[in-house]
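Minimal example, chain plus 1-deoxynojirimycin.
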Amino acid sequence: MKNSHWFLTSALVFGMHASHAQRKTIAQKVDSVLRLMTLDEKIGQMNQYNGDWEATGPITRDGDKQDQIRRGRLGSMLNVTGVEHTRQLQEMAMSSRLKIPLLFGQDIIHGYRTTFPIPLAEAASWDLEAIQNAARVAGREAAAAGVHWTFAPMVDIARDPRWGRVMEGAGEDPYLGSTIARARVLGFQGKKLGDTDAIMACAKHFAAYGAAIGGRDYNSVDMSLRTLWDIYLPPFKAAEEAGVATFMNSFNDLNGIPATGNAYLQRDVLKGKWKFKGFVVSDWGSVGEMIPHGYAKDHKEAALEAVSAGCDMDMESRSYIVSLAALVREGKVKVEWIDDAVRRILTKKFELGLFDDPFRFCNVQRERQQWNNPENLRIEEDMAKKSIVLLKNDHQLLPLSKDTKTIAFIGPLVKSVRENLGFWSYDWADDSARVISPWDGVQGKLGSGSRLLYARGCGITDTSTAGFAEAIDVARQADVVVLEIGEARDMTGEAKSRSNIHLPGVQEELVRAIVGTGKPVVVLISAGRPTIFNYTADHAGAILYTWWLGTEAGKAIADVLFGDYNPSGKLPISFPRTEGQIPVYYNHFSTGRPARNDSDVNYVSAYTDLPNDPRYPFGYGLSYTRFVYSDLRLSAPSFKPGGTITATVTVTNTGSLEGRETVQWYIRDMVGSVVRPVKELKGFEQAVLKAGESKKLSFTIDVEKLRFYNDKLQHIYEPGEFRLFVGGDSQNVNEIPFSLTAGR
Ligand code: NOJ
């Protein structure tokens, strides 16, 4: 006790800033705490419990958590928020022998009080600054509510829209995914851990969870190590390089070894090769889940596998707290592994400043200030507008005039409020959080001379068409119809995998009925994943993919519908024509029998009943204006390692409105020692162009952009022929060849 008092006082005196010079000081302080700890107290630090609500897995209610806190048997809790509640629990920790503060973690996936667009929607903005700002606001709001740690960003690459968790990530591409991973980590963690508005981020789920077979959640993953390294690991590496404080392992097994017990992933790659200094938390119960996996016979063996593999904290399975001490005593678990895990966890507690002041995130005033904070709402609206993707706009049906006499606003989501928040969002019990429905947003835009008519038409999952007659009647009275259809907020998310991702119920029949009136029809699709809507794609006049946009959804939708914001979103994932095409992704390999075009199906790699290409390709998204690419040039046709080529292209806005274009650069390695993708995104840039304006954009090619993992898993580049592509999506591109010659 005496020692710990001395130590805590000295921590207070020296202050706690994780600058480089002081990191050593933190290491010394961690060691001095570690020396005071019993084995049970150390294992306690590696133990995390849920706060009994907001659960995403079975809750273990046995035992008295509060008693365990007081006995130093708990290092962290999840799903505990709010200044008052976190203070209460922290006070309990302060009555423990060593007064080691608790860490409070929470899934702040796309906002806390202010709900931002779902992460997949944000990714559609390709706007890294906006994405970072969104995470910054989420971090600030959460930190003000006593939270120290978010279980985000999810950086899993997802090529399968049947997987419900596709909504949580940045889509299918490793390059885009890496840039977004970095932006989100920087956003959550702010200037530095230790600031009271910064929370720890967590790169999850390590690794390859997004490739769950058949898109079924929690399922196995079987993939080559080359695919793992080329496609699935880069966003994790980017998060690590951005300084992410923690990693979470995952539910899936990877090639037969559960990720939670996977030493290759956690010890060899993450803590070894990448030298990651933070700590790894398990996913919910995933240590214990190695038993049903058939990888461990009981919790004791599961604890042994997980801790040996480098999993530092056990979320909710209680395998560590129950079995680790015995495993150490039996000599099966080295005490150095325990010390290493505890050191990592304590280091973060020091960096957060919790040893200085365990209550520094418990400030009622700060919490209130972040409640419905207008600046946060403004940032949310900006993010929401930028997330919307214009998929179709025949005859420039959009934008609508604010003076349109009569608009019929039809569909099950028109007056939706909570649906706009999407999965992984919070329902505030006091109902005081404002959410703008599409109806309110549109109404707020219209002048007094305009009429807005409403009909629901059907419910999201209805099989009845009873409401169609009224909807048709309302449509007939209007100059233009806006239909809003899509998914309910709980249809895409964790454990929400679906084999059928067509728009649910009779919603597309509603579109057909309204199109049948002959009125111009704009369709808004609000959903958490790529859905399938072929009738709508073929027959609606205009389509906006509006995802789940969050608190200011209605305002953002109205801004885009009426042209106050010219849509700029680009799909971060390919949209399939039908489920049978899945997985469909743009950066696939070339086969030995590639199809030349959609009608080329004779003994080539093709479906006889479906084109190979998706309904909408990766990177796709229209604008109310038009961008033309011309004059693609290279500074030289070839270069040597150490050198570069500068590519330039002119982009011209040939329409009559200002617009924002995301210029995408792709490369293909024509011949390799292993087969290479037909195209890989290697860079992008956003340009805002006035009507008639041209801009010359450039892109530097160097060998770093040509690297890939060969069959020996070496990250190499190979001399030879390449092609450079540039365009506004992954399909519609201009191209030019270049080569890399050997030698310096
Ligand atoms: C399970 C999810 O897989 C993970 O992403 C989440 O952070 C935890 N539950 C905690 O809620």
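Residues 1-17 have pLDDT under 50 and may be disordered. The pocket of 1-deoxynojirimycin is lined by residues 56, 78, 107, 151, 204, 283-284, 494 (CB under 6 Å).
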